[in-house]
Every structure is written in structure tokens, then in C-alpha cells.
């Protein structure tokens, strides 16, 4: 008979053989014993975790001659017929190659016929997410209300691609990735039953490379058995999986910790010469650093190690390296791994990362030494102050309340945080020399100035000017009125705004104007005072001069004499 792969020979034939899915197998066994099986199941999870195997075992269990049973007997004619595929009551359908509407309609037409030998007809649809939209619609009604003698079992690796209307009509079971310990236990059992000699460390290497899939692990074990001579050794497993030995990783991390850049680069060179992939090496270094950190913080969780076995060298290295250094290692290596995905020079990135790790370790040492010295100085200062205080108590010095110091904050807080006093003298000077042309020129280019500030990444400053407007301008200055006092205070105390606005206005108008900010309520008072002062000046002038109304004088300043029409 032709040779069969291990994963086919050792395919689970009962629920007890399904590794790492106790939450699924226990539920199905209880349902079988209580005869509470559903009409439709959805098995989802990563590849090689036992979805199709569990579906076949369920099909045998519901049709077993000794039913109700928690496990198929695998001895009766029906169990044997389902195992070898000679009974037509269990129909396996690959949705990847039969994903059309016609195939599903054929199932819908035949589903009403009673089973030939067993009690149930079981339809196992693998990779069900590959069905077309029309095929899902054709399946929907049959899946919702199938005949009593029909059970549907849908298996998929991508449940998010299945319509919710299908999922809601099934009992869903999520198969999880199998742990490395469970994979190792199953492979050792198979190797013992097959009379294969092996090194236990080799089994751990294969289990880590399988990444949670039992079928992948058995395929790698099959390959390692073919590659080895008399025994599956650690070197055989490393060669077949492309992994890197723990001793090499320990040597590399130790070189980086000791700041021996030459030795670390030499180790990387040796590994790459042996055909190791730089991206895979970077990933192994991340997992190794993670295991170092895990062992250092929680040494009792050795079963959670992903990459290493805690031997003496590993424990010694974990004692030497500080946690902050491991944080830095993982951060640098993770960033390097991401950058490798977009380059053709992965080796260069790996070598640069090794140099960075050594420098990061130096910087950590320097920072740690600085923090230590600062802490020591602080402790000495505290001790000195405690000694002086104790001496003062012995001398009987009475510590009175610091009256002056206590009174100081009262003066400081007597003024509100929003108080802002506009420079009234400067504003009146601008009003005295104000011209229509200057204020018109500024108002015409005001929108351009705000837009220019936005382009120059001054958007946050522009927000302060939303409620502000120019109200008066002379040849060298202009008054900017703010609606709210707090906005005026923030704007005038912002050196960047006060310095940038005149330069931008100069580029737009050709004139350099200094800015004077004033809140709206203060502007009304200052302007009224200016108008009254102008009226008093006119009254004290020559008798031959005609006194002009203050309101008319203010209007003349704002719009000009040409546009002003005065009527009695």
C-alpha cells in the first residue's frame, strides 16, 4: 500500500483525539447523549485545528448503531462505512470548487429524500465562505427549516465572510489555535506509536513552527522523519523548520548586552550564511526578548514561554539584563520588522538593529546612572534638612507662621485672571492721527491676512481673531477691537501673534503697522473720552473758529468729508 502522510494516518476518529478543543467536544458529547443535536452547525477557526475531523466524528456519532453515545464506536458497519466513505448518507462538499447556485439547488432538491442506511443525512460543507451570494440565498431557506433527518455542518476559516442570516441559523463553535504543549504531547504519542526515535527539544521546535495547527505540525514531523537518519534530532528540526537554535539566540543577545557589536554581527553573518531568513531571525529575537521579560517578571509562568526552554544559560541571561533594556530591545526589533516588509535589503536593517540595540543598552546604563546619582543626592539633602530641623527643636526655637509669606498670595490673587488694561494713551494717539485711508486699507486686506496666517501654520492664533475687527488706524499703528476681554488678553500676551501680524500686513499693504488690542467695553469708554476731550479743545479755541459737533467730527474721521452730508 502506498505511504500515507502522518496527518492522514492519525486523523482523529473520536472526540478524545481532537487536541486542544475540549470546549467544543464536551458540548457536542453532551448534546449527543441528551439527543439534543441541532439541525445546523458552524465550525470556524484557523487551519489544521480539527474542524472537518470533528464534523466527521459528529456524523458518525449521530448515525452509530449504538446511539445515543458520546463517542462513535468505530466498530459497527455504519461507523466503518462513514470512515471509508462508502455510505452515501454523509455528503462532503468543497465550497471552494462547488460554489455556484446549481450545486446548492441540487442539495435543496435531494435533501427531502430519507437516508439510505443511517438515521440522518449529514451535509459537511467545507470552506463555506467561498459560496457565492446566490448560493447562500439558495441555501438559506433549506438551512432554516430542513427535514428532521438532515444535519448541516458548515466549516470555515473566515466566518466574517458568511452572511449573518446564515450564522444566526446555526450553532456556532469557534476552534482555537492549539497550544504548543498540546501539539508536543500529541506528536510524542504518535512518534511512540510509530516507533520513531526523537529528541524532545526537536518536538518543541516543530510545535512552535506549526503556529497552532496540528496538521502543519504533523506535516513538519513527517518531513523531519524523512530528513533524519535514525533519530529526529534538534538540528534536524531546526533545518526542516528554518528555525534558529536557542543557543545561537542566547549568544546573540549576550553579545548585544555586552556591547560587543563585532561578535553580534559575526553571529548574524553565520546564521544568514546557513540560509536563515532575516525577517524570521528578527521575529525569533522578539520572542526571545519577550520570554526573557516574562521570566524576569513572572518566573512561575514557564509554560507561557513561546520561544525558549528555561535552561541555565537562559536564566543567567535573564538575571543580567534589566527590564528597561528588554523593553528597548522589543521596541527596536518590532520597528525593524515592520520596516523589513517594505525593503529588499532586510539583512541591512537587521545589522543596523543589532548596532542600535547595543547603543540603546549604553543609553539605558547612562540614564540609570544619572537617575541613581540624582536620587542619592536627594536622599542626602533630605537627611541634612532633617538634621537641621532636629537641631532647631533642641535649641527651643519656636517656629512662627510666616506672616509675610502668607500675605503675599493675597496680593497676587487680588486681581482677576481675566483683567486686561488697554493702553488708553496709545489708543487716543492713534485716534488723534487716524485717517480714513489707513483704516480702509487694513480692512480691505484683513481677510487676506487671516488666510495668510492659516497658510503659515498659525491657525490656532487665527482663532483668537474671529471676533476681532480693526476700528481705527494711523500711519504707523492700528487699534484692534476684541469682543471678549479674555481673547484680547490672550492675543496681546502671545508674542508670536503680536510679532507676525505686522509683518504679514506689511507684505499685503506695504506699510508697517503696530497692533494695539482693546476689549469692546474699554474701546467704547476710550472713544467717548476722546470725543469729549476733542469737544473741550474746540470750546477753548479761537472765537472766530466755529465749534463742530463731536459726533460729526467722529463721523468725518470714520468716513471722510467727501461722503459726509451734514444737514441742520
Keywords:
568 residues; Helicase, Ruva Protein, domain 3; 9% strand; alpha/beta; Zinc Finger, Delta Prime, domain 3; three-stranded mixed β-sheet; 4 domains; five-stranded parallel β-sheet; Rossmann fold
Q: How would you describe this structure to a colleague?
A:
The strands form three sheets. The chain has a five-stranded parallel β-sheet with strand order 2-3-4-1-5, with helices on one face. A three-stranded mixed β-sheet has the order 8-9-10, with helices on both faces. Strands 6-7 form a two-stranded parallel ribbon. The protein is 58% helix and 9% strand. Residues 398-418 and 541-546 have low confidence and may be disordered. It contains 26 helices and ten strands. It is of the alpha/beta class and 568 residues long. The protein folds into four domains: 6-174, P-loop containing nucleotide triphosphate hydrolases (Rossmann fold, 3-Layer(aba) Sandwich); 180-241, Helicase, Ruva Protein, domain 3, CATH 1.10.8; 246-363, Zinc Finger, Delta Prime, domain 3 (Up-down Bundle); 424-559, GMP Synthetase, Chain A, domain 3, CATH 3.30.300. The longest helix is centred in the middle third of the chain and has 49 residues, at 346-394. It is elongated and about 125 Å long.
